[in-house]
Amino acid sequence: MSQAAEQTAGAPAILQEIRPAVKPRAQLVAHGHDFNWITEKICGIAEEKTPVWWWWCFGCACLVASFTVAGITYLVATGVGVWGHRSPVNWAWDIVNFVFWIGIGHAGTLISAILCLLRQKWRTSINRSAEAMTIFAVVCAGIFPVFHVGRVWYAWFLFPLPNSNYIWQNYRSPLEWDVFAVSTYGTVSVLFWYVGMIPDLATMRDRFASVGKTLKARLYGLFAMGWRGSSRHWSNYEMAYLILAGVSTPLVLSVHTIVSFDFAVSLLPGWHTTIFPPYFVAGAIFSGFGMVLTLALPLRAVYHLEDLITQYHIDCMCKIILATGTMVGYAYAMEFFIAWYGANPYEGFTFINRAFGPYWWAYFLMISCNVITPQFFWFKAVRQNTTLVWILALFVNVGMWFERFVIIATSLARDFLPTSWGYYSPSVVEIFTFFGTFGVFSVLFLLFIRFLPIMAIAELKAVTPQADPHSGEHRGDRHG
Amino acid sequence: MAKLFPKSANKLPVQIIVYLCVVGCIATAAAQYYMTPKYTRVGYAPMQPVPYSHAKHVGELGLDCRYCHSTIDTAGAAIPTSQTCMNCHNQLKAASPALAVIRESYQTGNPVPWVHVHVMPSFVYFDHSIHVNRGIGCVECHGKVSEMDVVTQVKPMSMGFCLDCHRAPELHVREKADVFNLDSGTIAATQGIEAARTFVKDWNIKPPVSCSGCHR
Lengths: 480, 216
Known about the structure:
The structure holds 2 protein chains of 2 kinds.
Chain A: H1 2-8, H2 35-47, H3 52-78, H4 93-104, H5 106-117, H6 127-148, H7 174-210, H8 214-224, H9 231-264, H10 276-302, H11 311-341, H12 345-356, H13 360-372, H14 380-384, H15 386-413, H16 428-451, H17 457-462
Helix pairs in contact in A: 3-16, 4-6, 4-10, 4-15, 5-6, 5-9, 5-10, 6-7, 6-10, 6-16, 7-8, 7-9, 9-10, 10-11, 10-15, 11-12, 12-13, 13-15
Chain B: H1 12-34, H2 37-40, H3 54-60, H4 65-68, H5 82-89, H6 100-108, H7 128-132, H8 138-142, H9 159-167, H10 187-190, H11 193-202, H12 211-214
Helix pairs in contact in B: 5-6
C-alpha cells in the first residue's frame, strides 16, 4: 500500500530496475556429472557381466517369440486360411498388427529427425533406444503383410523384378506405395541408428582394446569403421547426421500417410475419408511415444539412469502424448461430424455402427484409452509419478491397437449390403502370432541393451553444462 | 595399444558393398535363368508306360491329331482310351509285347498310366477348344509333335508365354484349315501381318489379358 502511495506522490510509474524472472533451463544431465561418468555409465551397461534378470527376460522373450515362429510355420505349411479373416472381413488382425507396429516406430524417427532439426536437446538421452525400437517395430510389422500374401515364397512379386510371369506391379495401388514407403523407412532408420552409433562403437572398441579383450575390440571396431574422432571425422559425421535427419523428416509424415492411403484410397465407408493421413500420423506418434515410455521407464529404473532420463525428459514425452492424443481425439470427433455433415447414409451408418454396433466394446476401449488416458498428463503430479506414467503409457499402447482394429474390422464387417454383413473373430493362430511378436520385439531389444550403447554417449556429453564454453567460471562474461 | 586392423581394412567397407552388389546381381541373373520354366520345364520328356511314337503315327502314317485327342475342338484335351488304340491294334501287331499294357487296360477297363507332360497349374483356367477354333495351331504350344518319338515339352508354358500370344494374337494365328497341320505357317508369316490383323478382327479374337481371364 505504501508503494502505491509513493507512486501517487509523484514518482515515475515504472520500475526502477527490471528483474527478469529466473527460469533456469532444465538440466539434461542431472547432478553435474562429468564426461567420464557418462562414458562409464553407458558403456558399463554393455560391459558388465550379464545380469541374471537379463537371462530370465531373454528366456521369456524367446518363449513368447516362439509363438510367432510356430504360428507362421503353421500358416506357411497350411495356408493363409488358418487366420480367421474371411469374407467380408478379409483384412483383420494381420493388417491391424502391421499398422500397430509400424505406427510405434514413428516416435523413433520423430525423435531422431524432427527433434534433431528443431534442436530439442532432450532427445539425446532417448534417441538411441527409440531408434532401436523403430527398427525392431518395423521388423515386427513386416511379418504380417509378408505372410498375409499366403504363398510367402512369392513375396518378391512386390518388387519390380523381371519374371517369366510378366507380372508387373500396379503403381496405382497404395499397397504398392506401402512396400516402398516401409522399406525406405526401414532402410533409413537403420542407417540413422547406425551412423549415430559409430562414435560410441569406437569408444567401446577402445575400452575393450585397453583391457586386452581383442576379439570384442575387433568386433566393435569392425562396425566403428575406423573412427578416430578426428575433426575431419566429426565434421563428416555431423554432416551425414544432418542429411539423414533431413531425409527422415518427410518420412515421419509420409510413411503413415501412405499406410493410411491403404484405407483412404478405397471406397469403403469408414475408410474413405480425407482426414486419415494427419489422423494416422498423429496416432502413430502418439502410440510411438507410448511405447518409448513403456520401454524407457523400466530401463531407467533397472540401470539407475535417473540422471540421464530426468523428470524433464518424461515431462516432455508426456506432453507430446497429450498433444497427439488430443489430436487423435479431435479426429475421432471430426469423423463423426463429417459423417453427419456429409449426409451420406452409408457413412453415417458406419459410424453409428462403430460406436453402438456389435463392436461397441472395442470402440469404447479405444476412446477411453486414447482420448481419456492422455488427458491425465495435464497434471504435473501425474507426470511426476513414474509408475502412473508407465501404466498410462500401456493404456495408450492398448488403445492404439484397438483404434486400428475398430477402423479395419468394423468398417469391413458391415458395409453397403446387409446381406454380406459378418462378424469377425480371430483364430487361435492369429492370436498366437500377434502375441509372439512382442517376444520377437523383446528379444531384439534385450540384445540391443546387452551389446550396444543404449544412449548416444557423445551427444549426451554435448548437452552437459561443461560442454558449453560459457558455463562455469565464465558465466556472466559478456561478449562485447 | 596394438593395431586392431591391418591397413588394408580401410578398403573393407567399399569391398563389402561391391561384393554384395555383385553377388546380388549374379543371384538375380541366375534365378532368372535357372529358376524359370524356360529352364526347368523345356525339354521335359518323361518315359511313358507304352513307347508310343507320335513320329510314326502322325508323321509317317498321317493320323490326324483329333483321331485320338477327339474332344480337343469341342471341350478340353482328351488322352485317348485304350479302346482307341485297339481300333487298329486288335489287328496290327496284336501280340506285340510293347502293347501289353494297352491290352491289359482294354481288358480290365483300368486306364493306362500315361505320364502328364504339359502340366497346367490348377489355378489356371485353360480351354483347348476356344484356341483351336480361333486359329491357334497345336504346334504353337506343343511344337512339332509329329517329329517326336517321345513327347517332349518344347515351350516354357509360363504365364509370360501365354501373355506373349494374348497380347499379340495376330503374330500367332493361322488359317483354320491349318490348325491341325503341324507343318503349316502362321498367317503373318505366309500372307503378311495385315492379313493376320484382318483375320483377328474378322474372327473377333479378343484374348483376355486381365487376371480373371485365366485365374477365375
